[in-house]
Amino acid sequence: xxxxxxxxxxxxxxxxxxxxxxxxxxxxxxxxxxxxxxxxxxxxxxxxxxxxxxxxxxxxxxxxxxxxxxxxxxxxxxxxxxxxxxxxxxxxxxxxxxxxxxxxxxxxxxxxxxxxxxxxxxxxxxxxxxxxxxxxxxxxxxxxxxxxxxxxxxxxxxxxxxxxxxxxxxxxxxxxxxxxxxxxxxxxxxxxxxxxxxxxxxxxxxxxxxxxxxxxxxxxxxxxxxxxxxxxxxxxxxxxxxxxxxxxxxxxxxxxxxxxxxxxxxxxxxxxxxxxxxxxxxxxxxxxxxxxxxxxxxxxxxxxxxxxxxxxxxxxxxxxxxxxxxxxxxxxxxxxxxxxxxxxxxxxxxxxxxxxxxxxxxxxxxxxxxxxxxxxxxxxxxxxxxxxxxxxxxxxxxxxxxxxxxxxxxxxxxxxxxxxxxxxxxxxxxxxxxxxxxxxxxxxxxxxxxxxxxxxxxxxxxxxxxxxxxxxxxxxxxxxxxxxxxxxxxxxxxxxxxxxxxxxxxxxxxxxxxxxxxxxxxxxxxxxxxxxxxxxxxxxxxxxxxxxxxxxxxxxxxxxxxxxxxxxxxxxxxxxxxxxxxxxxxxxxxxxxxxxxxxxxxxxxxxxxxxxxxxxxxxxxxxxxxxxxxxxxxxxxxxxxxxxxxxxxxxxxxxxxxxxxxxxxxxxxxxxxxxxxxxxxxxxxxxxxxxxxxxxxxxxxxxxxxxxxxxxxxxxxxxxxxxxxxxxxxxxxxxxxxxxxxxxxxxxxxxxxxxxxxxxxxxxxxxxxxxxxxxxxxxxxxxxxxxxxxxxxxxxxxxxxxxxxxxxxxxxxxxxxxxxxxxxxxxxxxxxxxxxxxxxxxxxxxxxxxxxxxxxxxxxxxxxxxxxxxxxxxxxxxxxxxxxxxxxxxxxxxxxxxxxxxxxxxxxxxxxxxxxxxxxxxxxxxxxxxxxxxxxxxxxxxxxxxxxxxxxxxxxxxxxxxxxxxxxxxxxxxxxxxxxxxxxxxxxxxxxxxxxxxxxxxxxxxxxxxxxxxxxxxxxxxxxxxxxxxxxxxxxxxxxxxxxxxxxxxxxxxxxxxxxxxxxxxxxxxxxxxxxxxxxxxxxxxxxxxxxxxxxxxxxxxxxxxxxxxxxxxxxxxxxxxxxxxxxxxxxxxxxxxxxxxxxxxxxxxxxxxxxxxxxxxxxxxxxxxxxxxxxxxxxxxxxx
Length: 1185
Prior knowledge:
Helix 24 (549-563) packs antiparallel against helix 25 and helix 30 (698-708) packs across helix 34. The strands form twelve sheets. A four-stranded antiparallel beta sheet has the order 18-19-15-20, with helices on both faces. It is built from 46 helices and 28 strands. Among the domains are: 41-54 and 68-115 and 129-217, no CATH class; 221-262 and 272-317 and 338-422, no CATH class; 426-466 and 478-522 and 543-627, no CATH class; 644-660 and 695-875, RNA-directed RNA polymerase lambda-3; 1034-1151, GIY-YIG endonuclease, CATH 3.40.1440.10. The radius of gyration is 45 Å and the shape is flat. Strand 24, helix 42 (993-1005) and strand 25 form a beta-alpha-beta unit. The chain is α+β, with helices and mostly antiparallel strands. InterPro entries: DNA/RNA_pol_sf, GIY-YIG_endonuc, GIY-YIG_endonuc_sf, HTH_animal, RT_dom. It comes from Haemonchus contortus.
């Protein structure tokens, strides 16, 4: 189409030339006249083209072939939707151009730069041209570059009342508004900037400033110096003095090493006979002045290098201070070609480390460490030199002649010689550290060992491991020995005494360490053992000789760092202690049978430090085992550290948790129409749920959930309910071309990465911990407990045990909040793209984008964020998009919503004829109609939603009269008022509305309506009777269980029950109650029976009625009641009704005379005994796996 336009344009141009020629006019129409005419013709459309006349070939002016012409497409935005806004934005953004170093505003500016630049003889010039800049600009990168530049200089320009975010939002809108018309049709510009848009030039210039930055960064050393000097606010006189405007190129020359000349080579002319020293003269060079200042800084570091000799006097002093021995030897070492073989990278690293360590102790002359290192690197990189009229670059080593070369070489060598210096005698290390730590002279002298003796090896026979027939054997292989190296009087003997005092204090912080037998007995008494617990002892084979010294040192360092503030360090720092410990371990020479050996692995038994280091090393080995402690232990530990109330600690402590159980729910909304009667499991999609009720993490996760759910308010895309979604829809300004879709996460819970979820939660909690109620816990406490809850992932299915190895368990209290926080991390890249609207309810996302391409990009981006997270998408059907319980329509920028029910929904409510209070049924329909109206946007949508709600109500048997369906009610505040909270709650099983009305009338007549609040308890429905999440969980595998044979399997694990114990010998009974699992209470009764303890009911019964003879018992459950007060009251009713002989008079609540007449109405009858027979005394609980 563009080609057709060009052809028609040039036909008119050719016709005009022919007409002028016929009039004998001897000139060709000037090109600017033609341009004006062409513009007048084509301004009737939104796009037009200009021919690039400066690129026309000489023979193509009269051509009609469009391929001979290069055109510049221009989109005229005069009067367009962004025309006026871009005028204001252009005023703001053009001010940024003054901060772009390479930008030329006009020819005068170019001339000024030419005059300011000092050119050299070898300099070359060229010009570069960007091909089709505007159309090839990346809009995203242009926006990012503009954002960065605007952020940096917003305070220096006139923002015309706008903020940076305001400006960037408007700029993005102007770029996104890229519709234009051409030849009567509409198109969208999908790439680049539109020439003709006011913002195009400034955005293209800013974008190019980002492209050319690496080239500008190749500036000379002088520029780097000026930049750093101004940042450091150095004196102007110093800046000017060290600025080198006309540096000369460094020159190479050589010096002959005359001291290495052979006697017969003085008159030689052969170059190979001479050794030379290459020197690059930097006098007047680009780094000459700057390196002078750097040298002042760095030479101060030489005082911190132990082996550095500044002059001969210093060498003599060291010789005098050293105490030489008879067997000592001396040598001198020389580095071959040090300067040229220095590794610049390692030299820079060594200098950086040393400068970081001692920057506070030297004069930095106003520079920071980073400033110094930047300038040093620039000086090293500036390595061009001239030799014999040619130019070269030094690619390795330091240039002799460079001011910085000596100091950098010395610092580099300090790193090379460090391992050698570390091998100095223990005594020297001790004196050095002791003087640094300013220890008392008496202690220093006492622990200094001037004449140590060499440690000696001897062995002890392990007599306890001798075989019975080997006592008289002379065969060495029959004996196991313990090698011991005696360090008495050795070089580390005295120092290790002090170190042992320090390190043995750490043993109190090692949980598994036993200091003596008494401590072991205390731990045994404090531990609550269960029936299925097993015990064993483990022994480490040859512990001392197999310890890894490096790991032992690391474990000691970590433990010492953690607890240094809690122990007596005897004036030493952690680094001092660790240095001395390492020296003691490295000093491992010993003598055996007149010869000398070195211990190359393990600890020496006989060394004072060996036991403590071995114990600390083992604490690291056994940590993974200790970390496998139950969640309950972790909770108690953290709760006591956080000083939480004892009532809360006890309430959340779970002494006898049950194993979580897996069950599945069929996704009925995803059933195909023809699969309702199918028996093929593959036809059904199920939702796996792990019931954690009563599980080990059930109570603790309740508290954690209170903490973490507060974080959801800080997640931008999170939807708490439908009302929040409606608010976001109303706040969003949709345009005509906007599109909407919904994304759904496939199997979110099971595909969550637990590690990433924990990390995302940690980051969010760290950020907002000060804004939420942490309930007395710290961030680390919360995260430790959350991790424990996730790691506790054992569950039971069909009698077998499994562990969930990936994802979150649906049924775990923490699963929803962790999944939501994890998804906030997944969706962050999409939110950074600023879609029109993005919101999410758990795993259902509603997305609105400016274009379909942007929608596709967001979808693809979400699917690349995690390995296991995959999204599916749903597009509007007949312009309506279902989302949650509503449908959304976006058509030409207008939004409509209405109530929605899934086609697969059975629309089942509480039936009108069911046995429920009338108020309950009225509330159900009233809420349904209220929701239908709330989610509907207009009168038409309200009518459709109400009609659908009416159909649902009628299907469930509700009357057709609209008044009865939508009976108005007075608005009541949610929750109970203070008045209702003061009333006594009277729970009444619902029989009928008339019975409930009669009860309320009776209370009113008695004047109790102000004190009693009647609550009708709904009857048990089919779901509660038929659906069980522990269908296969009621298994009793305990031999001779006395509980389950008289009831159902699994009764021994029931809690909150009233039970009866029957003596099988005489028939007497005992009635009791317990809130714990029944097996625990019965076990206590049987223990009293077995030991004949008179303080227990069964023990007293054995003595008084059976003469101390043991008898058999059977146990049955009478009633189940979770509430403690109600359970104790029912126990009293049972005791009053049955008068059991074994019970004592003071064991239960007394029944008042007012309640006594009602006992017969309670129907308290003993349940029949099971045909399975009675049990025997013995084990009373199911085996725990």
